[in-house]
Amino acid sequence: MALVAGVFVLVLGLTGSILAFEPELDRLFHPHLSYVKPGGSALSLGEIGEAVSKQFNGEPIVAYLPSESPDLSSEVILPSGIVCVNQYTGEVLGTRTRGQSIFGLARDLHVRLASGDVGRNIMRWSGVALLVSLASGLYLWWPGKRVGVRGGWQSGGFWFDVHNSVGILSLAPLLILAATGTVTGFEDQAATLLAKVMATSQARGGQNSARARAAPEAPVITPEITPDQAVAIARGQMPGAIPYRVQMPRYGGAYRVSLDYPRDRVAGGHNLVTIDQYSGDVIFSTRSSDLSSAERILATNEAIHTGGVLGMPSRIVVWLTSVILPVQVVSGLWLWLRRKRYAVNSSGGVS
Question: Who contacts 312 (Cβ-Cβ below 8 Å, separation ≥6)?
Answer without folding.
Answer: none
